[in-house]
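G., before I forget:
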Amino acid sequence: MLDFFTEFPEISRSDIRDIKTSIDNAFRSFSRNYGESIENFFDPLLWFLIWIEKLLLNTPWPIIILIIALLCYLGARNWKLPLASALTFTFIGYLGMWEDTMSTIALISVATIICILIGMPLGIWMSRSDRVQKILNPILDVMQTIPIFVYLLPVLMLLGIGKVPGLIAICVYAMPPIIRLTNLGIRLVDKDILEASNAFGANYKQRLLEIQIPLALPNIFAGINQTIMMALAMVVIASMIGVRGLGIPVLQAIQNQYLALGLMNGLAIVALAIIFDRALQSYGRRLQKHNVGNKK
Amino acid sequence: MKNLFISQFIYCLFFFFLLNKAVASDCEFQMADMNWPSATLIANVDKFILEEGFGCKVELIPGATTATFVIMNEKGRPQVAPELWINSVAEPLQKAMQEGRLFSASDGPITDLGEGWWVTPDTLKRNPQFRTVLDILERPDLFPAKEDPTKGEFIGCPAGWGCQLSNQSLFIAFEMEKKGWILVDPGSKAGLDASMSKAAQRGENWFGYYWSPTSLIGKYNMKLMDFGVPFAGAENWDSCISKGPEICINPKASAWTESIVKTIVTPEVRDMSKVMKYFSKRTFPAEVMNNMLVYMEDNQAQGIDGAITFLERYSELWINWLPKEIVQKVKKAL
């Protein structure tokens, strides 16, 4: 009797084994039956990724640096950021990390685009319905906290190692901030303004596109910033499942304690994050310029 | 307080018996229980057979390659390391053996072990003409890379592992790029495992680096390919192939270097002739070992569970290791 209190009444070893094997077997037959079609489903994404990567790799490097500087200029409309980013990229290339950096940029841009394309509508949907928010919130918590390899393992068994599983891992981890902050931003829009728009007879679409989203932009851009940062933080994890890029040398450095190699590639990831972020943020600030005058 | 007295009393009693027994059986020692599955299995099989069959007293203590080697060499205990991978401690071991501090009791506790290039059984079934790695290298089209289907995909070793450099050198030495192959870095052991398991489960073609004895090799019955060229000398391997393409400019195509595993004992155990005879005969064929590893993983079996299952399942194997009267004793104990 005392046993009951000292020893936790746990399920027997053979039972737990049966449960585990039946789950594993179910997944295995699922993978055998549907794995190939799921792989085919993701193929367009893979081709898109490869296309961008090849484009970046095959374009002469001065042109890439020019384009990056130009994009930074279009975003920021000053000369500091384009100059800094051009210098950074020249330096990265000089240190022999050009190809890895291009691979990483390709991956991160696609990941960020996917996160925004899926995350923003979800965030908007979440802001319109409390029930959706109640359902989505715990899912987002899971996405951000679940140990990566727990869901990556089944993904790998379905899709094999490579870019697409890497992209999925990145998006699962990096998408929650944009969803949460879009939702938050729209919910924080002043009720009086919405009432006023109703009074002027604005329809649903006008209210969303011309009032709520523009007013929520500071939060949305904070979300995009977080998404980019988290995506870049996942570059090393993505490399653990065979994605080329700056993560591979980092892994190599960690295994062998190559301090300099790790630091160089790690800092290149940081530099990418900062450039991406600054360009987008200054673009966002310009979008919101009309607000600045209205504030207090 | 009372407990302390009792434990002291038991301790004294125990000590008394120990002394007696040491005189009586003259066969008592510690054995390293290494921290990977195949070594645990061997240690537990040894313990069971030596205790039940030979009346020895064997204590298993946890171990790891370098740590165990160092204390065996310095302190003379544990007295036995049943599965010691020599490559990482080659030089000091040689010295210790010359000076008579350590001895090899078995030069091959497991057969056919080591690293190399593997394919799935389905690959071989569909392509019986594949005899060696050289045959496979002619057919990159059968192993299309996901990201560039015009190329063949060879899965190498995870970034940062020692074998990554060796694979890179061999990739150059076999002129694989010219033959239409790309070397894929799986990034981690999890990546390598997943890549191989996925292909094996779906019956797809897969060509890559792995090692044995491992449960995955046993689980999917992976096939080790002969390189089709001989081992091109230790110098080529040690000072070129294993250093990677940055240092190794002109690697010579070569079979993978042999991994040497031995059972190492101290002089104390070397003088126990029956035990030494057992060690010298006790050899696990790779297939048996891999199957046992699959069993242990599937059932999450501890070392001792694995050992008993092994003794039950493979009695035709281990009866050859032992004199008849001892076989009877072990069988009775099962």
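The two ends of chain A are 71 Å apart (CA to CA). Chain A has one domain: 31-59+99-292.

More on Monday.
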